[in-house]
Specification:
The protein is an alpha+beta fold. It has 2 domains: 8-177, Creatine Amidinohydrolase, Chain A, domain 1; 181-439, Creatine Amidinohydrolase, CATH 3.90.230.10. It contains 13 helices and 17 strands. Strands 4-3-2-1-5-6 form a 6-stranded mixed sheet, sandwiched between helices. The protein has a 3-stranded antiparallel sheet with strand order 7-10-11. A 3-stranded antiparallel sheet has the order 8-9-12. Helix 1 crosses helix 2. The longest helix is centred in the middle third of the chain and has 24 residues, at 181-204. It is globular, with a radius of gyration of 25 Å. It starts with 7 loop residues before the first helix and ends in a 32-residue tail after the last helix. The structure holds glycine and manganese (II) ion (2 copies).
Amino acid sequence: MRYKAINPGVFIANRSRLSKMFLPNSLAVVNANDVPQTNADGTMAMVPNSDLFYLTGVEQEQTILLLYPEADEEKHRELLFLREPTGELELWEGHKLTKEEARAATGVQNVHWLSEFPRLFHRLMCECEHVYLNSNEHKRAVIETETRDARFTAETQRRYPLHDYHRLAPLLHRTRAIKSQAEVALLRKACEITEKGFRRVLQFTRPGVLEREVEAEYVHEFIRQGGRFAYQPIIATGINACCLHSISNASVCRKGELLLLDVAAAYANYNADLTRTIPVSGHFSRRQKRVYNSVLRVLRQCITGLTPGKKIKDWQKEAEQMIEKELVDLGLLSLRQIKGQDPEHPAFKKYFMHGVGHPLGLDVHDVGLTTQPIEAGWVMTVEPGIYIREEGFAVRLENDVLVTDQGPVDLMAGIPIEAEEIEGLMNGKPGVPELDGHARGVTGNGHQGRTGKRLLSK
Ligand code: GLY
Ligand code: MN
Ligand code: MN
């Protein structure tokens, strides 16, 4: 594990919050994710199942959690099933959890090998009345492959057709939406690592660097800090930034262009989500700065607008109205155009066509209750943008914000954002943390320095 072990009390509390929502005499099952296959005998790295991680902290493949809070026998109230580590398995794949390690890490006292699952599961199915089974539910998810949980559901319903089945997902969404203090601390750590990567890239970027070289700077910093990419990094120079999820990262960053960086770290499976837009040559043009400051004003007002009780759709509407006004001030829309627009296709959508934010947590687009009023304890991204294809650039800014009853807490408040601050840092103004040679723009391919001076000859 690349991160500091999490106190098992976090998972014990999460299981307790979830179990309290069950109907009387209920059994719930959560499965690990599959290890996805590629070609021949290849596999991809398994992405831990967020629900299983939330409830146990276990990342290991094939794991199954059973929760039966009112089981007749106390030893059946929480059960964890693991792959049995054999010499052969560990020879190829490395260490697998022992029962003692699993007890210590999860707080689940009754740990069994998977071979015992069929007998125990059958017994508990004969005792329980309601069964909660898990499913991956997200309004934008396109699910083409059957998950381990989905296969388990199909098989269980075939074998026990007369039980009273329920979806576990809505209950998990409700509890996962409200972040505990421990979860906020992990999100803060992900934000800190993200900030280190961004500061490194501020010093590295100059005309002539490749988007993929910028990606390499981030990956170096994130991994050395105990993190990893939270999602496919979006490193998009010039017109590339007008594609919202541009992930090829293959172009050259040219003088005069803006570089959009939607790049963040995950730590202990908790994700940050940051976007900054910086001038490749270290200075914004007047026009770029005007657009930048429009987006920054909207970002700040949308952060302030994240208040408990408001619906996300109303918060979105507020953002759209602010953007619309900024677009008029920037000369991109006229009042006449707005007056005559089809309300189903408002004119601002040409320049701002996405949601202003989403829940964040163990998933980047986290599960949550996006049709319900905002609640204290949610963590939301705030990410307005203006995309001007005809001028060949875009600006998006994105921070992560904890909603509280005392007002929003910006978890990224320390990450440089003012245009002048970005310019200062890119031009070596004091206050920049000392980094090694790579981060000072020495890329090894002999490209031009930001000042036009050659940094390395080859
Ligand atoms: N990084 C993807 C997003 O901002 O939603
Ligand atoms: Mn993002
Ligand atoms: Mn986002």
